[in-house]
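job 3f2a | input accepted
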Amino acid sequence: MNTTTSHSALPALPAAVCACEASPPHYLDSQQSLATRDALDVRVRQLIPCALVAQIWLLLFDADDVQMPLMMPIGELPHRPEHGFHGALALLHEEYGAASFVFVHERPGPGVLSVDDAAWLRALLEVPADAGYRVRAAYVAHDEGVGGFVDRGAVGVGRAVPAVRPGCGACRK
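job 3f2a | predicted structure (173 res):
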């Protein structure tokens, strides 16, 4: 019995990603360790370059900071969080061995944090000290791009969402 492995190219990313130098690469290395903040920023921008609908994305990472092949959209959200995601994260940690998580709060609108945005980011970044896993960052995808926070203390109402990377004139990112 012969076993053949096929290596096909990944599908093209959405047209929202520009081909300029400021744009991230048009391919995903599924085995790349995303241990640095810069590498994580690039991956998030590759996956969600700007907001289309209101939802939260959950990305899972293994102990080597490699993104696991599962991205979970969480939709139909209240304006402010009613509770955290710690029960779900603990289950994903236990069941799939996810060592860390990244959230992307996708919502159309300007790149300035509202009261609701700040409440969501603080809730997403909060993890019990003895959880056994960590939340590496919580990003906001908005009309003009994407930016992230790693510290609850940096989240403030009226604050501009920090840009992940400089943009270009062609893609306006």
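job 3f2a | The chain has three helices and five strands.
job 3f2a | closed
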